[in-house]
Design brief:
Radius of gyration: 21 Å
Structural class: alpha+beta
Largest sheet: 8 strands, antiparallel
Number of helices: 2
Shape: elongated
Distance between the termini: 48 Å
Strand content: 35-45%
Length: 181
């Protein structure tokens, strides 16, 4: 009788530990892209894309600008509290739809050989909403401290016009295994 009780308690304990490890988001923090609203036609599936861990807590969202058709790269940093900060924006050419340098209070406008950049934007947010564009070619790029960056075209994982929420949060082992990578 005692042996059966010990076996049952052991099995319950092991099952409980497995459930905590597998389903509770306590061990890993990742950049997550979650579909919060599907397009009107209902195409696509509601899912979360959990990006792999990188040494750095920086990423870029790039897209084709709707007016001047140049590629824009917005640089984000994950802060210690898990919020995001837009630190700078880089674009290939200056034209219609771009901010005026004199309108950028506290920001620095830099002109380099192959790009223009707005620095010190420092806009803090808990997360970022974004709709996958039909033409914009939205992509998310993780920037490691060393080595090559990883590039994630969002239209490969989500249907056009899907509204996304990009955040840095804790995820469970289950989410790591079954995310759309």
């Amino acid at each position: 009788m005692k042996k059966n009780a010990i076996r049952i308690l052991t099995a319950v304990f092991v099952a409980l530990v497995c459930c905590v490890v597998f389903f509770c988001p306590i061990f890993f923090s990742r950049v997550c892209v979650t579909a919060v609203r599907l397009p009107q036609n209902g195409s696509g599936a509601k899912k979360t894309l959990v990006l792999p861990e990188k040494a750095s807590r920086e990423f870029v969202i790039s897209y084709t600008h709707s007016v001047n058709k140049g590629r824009v790269r917005d640089f984000y940093t994950v802060l210690d509290d898990g919020s995001l900060m837009l630190s700078k924006s880089r674009f290939g050419s200056y034209g219609a739809g771009m901010p005026e340098p004199e309108d950028l209070a506290g920001q620095v406008f830099v002109v380099a050989d192959d790009y223009l950049e707005m620095q010190q934007i420092n806009q803090k947010m808990p997360g970022l909403y974004l709709a996958v564009g039909v033409i914009a070619g939205h992509a998310l790029e993780l920037l490691p401290e060393s080595g090559e960056s990883s590039f994630w075209p969002l239209n490969k994982y989500f249907a056009p016009q899907t509204r996304l929420y990009i955040s840095y949060r804790r995820v469970s082992v289950c989410q790591l295994i079954f995310s759309s990578l």
